[in-house]
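Retro notes (design track)

What went well: tokenization of the new backbones is finally stable.
What didn't: we kept losing track of which sequence belonged to which structure.
Fix going forward: every design gets posted as structure first, then sequence, in one message. First example under the new rule, 409 residues:
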């Protein structure tokens, strides 16, 4: 989740700095292709020897999204009829979250090895999904960035889920999301309840809906000034928050590599976002992490989270009194009707998560009618980012997630 205090995070980052349906392992690519610049997710998957497809889907409001499918590996061949697992990333991140840790550790690979047909989603606005049928994300004046995570839940997830099910011939799938990948799911399942029947099981990793008790210093410092930030950004014509660029990637590689005296500074920046847990951060992987994140997002996504922290409610975007009356027929935005979420949901949480406080996760749980349960990660230091990047995520978390999926097949 990218609820980071803008000025502080930008400074910190500055300091630390279609292959279309191609089902081939990296080893079978022509030699001349191995040095061709590729999408990060695709490059990682093919490097690790897994099969890969790239798919695109257009949402009802015109965004063109990229999904990646990992249907098998040399050790677990592609075959028809595999159960489908769909994985969704957090804010300021991308599908690379689920493969970046490598074979034997990354959730996507573990699911493929367990016999699942794995699909990786990408939300509008990140490095994989910066296209629209009309709007140019890089234009000086554009409506491309006029969205928050509400639209990701209302438009993006249904479009990707429908495409995945139609392509595979299934009527339902398993869903796992991290941070904003959980927020957007609860938007979809509450505002478009017909999608609940398309979900065999949902696994919320560091679930974010209610936020009033989070401990992140970035969010707590930024949230009181959210209205001013929104106005300033609008006046400046800045709609994208922390876009991915070569300078950040190069900075991460140079300042955060193993030989750099600044590597521990890089590590502590990550800890300040999601909580401290030094043993679970693979420092050698930091440059790759910073190549993946920030992957781009709208300012409105950040603002929407800050609004949730300020209000203590899980509700739609607050456009201000006048626009709220026009859009919602009330001066305040409506709460999301979580009682309409009927898919089986497992909430995986931790005590040291600075962005998904235990009390807020319990509040979310109290609103769900068909919860599988609350599942605490046993490591008392487990933080928000460990859910996707932790060295021992397999043993602390993923084995349990996969066993639950198996139970609902």
């Amino acid at each position: 989740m990218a609820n980071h205090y803008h000025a502080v995070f930008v400074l910190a980052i500055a300091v630390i700095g279609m292959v279309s349906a191609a089902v081939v392992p990296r080893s079978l690519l022509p030699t001349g292709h191995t040095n061709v610049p590729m999408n990060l997710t695709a490059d990682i998957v093919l490097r690790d020897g897994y099969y890969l497809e790239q798919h695109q889907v257009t949402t009802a409001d015109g965004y063109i999204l990229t999904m990646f499918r990992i249907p098998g590996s040399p050790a677990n061949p592609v075959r028809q009829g595999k159960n489908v697992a769909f994985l969704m990333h957090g804010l300021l991140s991308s599908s690379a979250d689920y493969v970046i840790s490598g074979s034997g550790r990354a959730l996507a690979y573990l699911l493929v090895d367990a016999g699942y047909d794995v699909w990786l989603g990408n939300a509008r606005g990140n490095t994989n999904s910066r296209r629209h049928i009309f709007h140019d994300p890089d234009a000086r004046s554009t409506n491309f960035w006029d969205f928050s995570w509400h639209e990701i839940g209302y438009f993006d997830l249904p479009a990707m889920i429908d495409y995945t099910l139609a392509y595979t011939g299934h009527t339902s799938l398993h869903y796992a999301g991290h941070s904003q990948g959980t927020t957007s799911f609860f938007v979809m399942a509450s505002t478009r309840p017909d999608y609940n029947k398309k979900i065999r099981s949902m696994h919320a990793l560091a679930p974010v809906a209610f936020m009033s008790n989070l401990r992140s210093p970035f969010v707590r410092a930024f949230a009181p000034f959210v209205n001013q930030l929104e106005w300033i950004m609008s006046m400046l014509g800045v709609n994208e928050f922390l876009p991915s660029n070569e300078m950040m990637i190069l900075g991460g590689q140079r300042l955060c590599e193993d030989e750099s005296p600044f590597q521990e500074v890089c590590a502590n920046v990550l800890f300040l976002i999601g909580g401290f847990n030094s043993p679970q951060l693979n420092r050698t992987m930091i440059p790759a992490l910073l190549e993946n994140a920030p992957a781009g997002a709208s300012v409105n996504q950040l603002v929407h989270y800050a609004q949730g922290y300020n209000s203590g409610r899980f509700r739609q975007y607050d456009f201000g009194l006048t626009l709220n009356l026009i859009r919602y027929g009330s001066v305040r935005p409506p709460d999301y009707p979580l009682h309409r979420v009927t898919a089986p949901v497992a909430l995986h949480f931790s005590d040291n998560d600075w962005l998904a406080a235990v009390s807020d996760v319990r509040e979310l749980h109290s609103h769900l009618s068909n919860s599988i349960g609350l599942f605490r990660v046993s490591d008392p230091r487990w933080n928000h980012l460990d859910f996707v990047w932790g060295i021992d995520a397999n043993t602390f978390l993923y084995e349990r997630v996969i066993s639950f999926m198996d139970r609902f097949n």
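Added context from the reviewer: DSSP finds 15 helices and eleven strands in the chain.
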